[in-house]
Design brief:
With about 120 residues, the protein is mainly beta. The chain has one domain: Jelly Rolls (Sandwich), CATH 2.60.120.10. The N and C termini lie far apart (about 30 Å).
């Protein structure tokens, strides 16, 4: 099950106000049997989305027309790109090239930041 929060406008609102630090891990919480997402920034040129996957949850193989970077901020995941599995843990990142099939699986609870660039 995918649970999506509305776009998190606080970060964009802070552009014209005093900047306030945020603790990324606190912006999205795990939910058993679910993938939870929160869009932090959504622009024509790209998006930054925070995800929390409970153990065993996955995104099936798919492609995207744009490059995307995954940065693991908590836990462990298996990210398969073009048939090659990659095991990542907190503090690691990987680039998923445009038009290459990729899939994600939570080998344990994990959180990630997905940055997609559209230009």
């Amino acid at each position: 099950m995918l649970v999506a929060y509305p776009v998190f406008n606080k970060l964009e609102e802070n552009v014209n106000q005093e900047a306030k630090p945020e603790t990324v891990n606190d912006l999205v919480n795990y939910q058993d049997g679910s993938v939870v997402s929160r869009t932090l920034i959504e622009k024509k040129t790209g998006t930054i989305t925070l995800f929390a996957f409970s153990k065993g949850q996955a995104l099936s193989e798919h492609t995207a027309p744009f490059d995307a970077m995954v940065y693991i901020i908590d836990g462990k995941a298996e990210i398969t790109i073009a048939g090659n599995p990659n095991n990542l843990e907190s503090g690691q990142m990987i680039v998923m090239p445009a038009n290459k099939p990729h899939a994600l699986k939570a080998t344990e609870n994990f959180k990630m930041i997905l940055t997609m660039i559209r230009s």
